[in-house]
Each structure stands twice: as C-alpha cells, then as structure tokens.
Amino acid sequence: MARKCFYSFHYKPDNWRVSKIRNIGTVEGNKPAKDNDWETITGGGDKKIKEWISGQMDGRTCTVILAGSNTADRKWINYEIVQSWDRGMGVLVIFIHNITDVNENQCSKGANPLYYVTHGPTKSRLSTIAKAYDPPRTTSKGVYSYIAENIDEWIEEAIRIRKAN
Questions:
Q1: What pLDDT score was predicted for residue 26?
Q2: Is-contact 65 77, C-beta < 8 A?
Q3: Which long-range contacts (CB under 8 A, 24 or more apart) does 158-161 make?
Q4: Residues 6 or more apart whose Cβ sits within 8 Å of residue 134
Q5: Separation CA 127–CA 34 (nearest Å)
Q6: Per the confidence metrics, is the pTM higher than 0.70?
C-alpha cells in the first residue's frame, strides 16, 4: 500500500522537476494547485493559504520536501515543515537539483530547508533530527532512478524518526 504524502516545493522553478518525481507512482501524493487555483488561494491571504495547506495535509503520514536551488527558508515551505512536524508526520528532504526542468536544464543545489526550522524547548534545528537525501548521481535519469529505488524506505525512516522524537 502506498503511503499518502504531502509534497512541499517551490512551485515556479521546480514544478516540472516535482512532476517527474510524483510520477514515480509508489507514493500517493496530494494534488498540486493549478495556477488559477493557486491565484485564488493566495488572493485570500495568509488565512486561506494556511487553510489550503491544512486541508492538503489531512490524512497524510509524511511530508516530502523536494528541494531545488531556492526552496530553503521560504515562508510557506517553513510553515509546511512546522505544521507537518507538529502534526506528528514524518518529514524528509530530497534534493532535486539534478533532475532536469522543462528545458532539460539542471540547477544548482540549494540549502537544506530543515536547517531553517527549529524544534522543541532547546530549539534544535530540525536538520539535526530529520534526514535530507542528495542522490549520488549526476544525470537526471540516474537521480530519478535512485529516488525511485529509495523513496519508500526514506519515507518509512522519516515516519520512524518522527515517532521517536
């Protein structure tokens, strides 16, 4: 049975890369908002965005942050990470910079989004608890294959880590 996951990513630069990962098919993911829907959601302000995120997270067991060049330390990415952790969901990062975009271009690796979120009374960085994966391949096809081979176990490990913390 496929896990139900919430995908967090920087839409405009990474939506093509993310769609490739979502097509792996072993993980059931939330449906991304279409451009017109997202404009309606964002037009409602922060409250509507938070409601939309909350609805998308309902019934999910893990959040998979698909990190491109500029994903880390974005307002809504950080919010999604905090909400996921607070709901008891597993959280993990997969770097997708070597997956090609619509123009067949790769991008530079960005920072770990978990570094910018703290947890608990000691305010430990979530990057010291949850894991980030940078597939050790350089071609888009190689990275895709590596993610496809490992994503199920990464998700299960993220859920185990969250239950332990």
A1: 63
A2: yes
A3: 158/62, 158/90, 158/91, 158/92, 158/130, 158/131, 159/3, 159/61, 159/62, 159/89, 159/90, 160/90, 161/90, 161/129, 161/130, 161/131
A4: 95, 109
A5: 30
A6: yes
pLDDT of residue 36: 61
Rounded to an integer, what distance in angstroms lies between the CA atom of residue 15 and that of residue 32? 9
CA–centroid distance for 80 within its chain: 9
The two structure tokens encoding residue 24: 């792996």
Sign of CA dihedral 165, 81, 15, 96: negative
- Residue matched to tokens 């990415």: 77
Identify the bridge partners of residue 95 per DSSP, sorted by sequence position.
67
The span from the first CA to the last CA of the chain, in angstroms, equals: 25
Q: Residue 151: what residue type?
A: I
Q: What is the pLDDT of residues 68-122, one digit of tens each?
A: 999 999 999 999 999 999 999 999 999 999 999 999 999 999 999 999 999 889 9
**In a 3-state reduction of DSSP, which class is residue 132?**
strand
Share of the chain residues as helix, strand and coil, in percent rounded to the nearest 5: 45, 15, 35
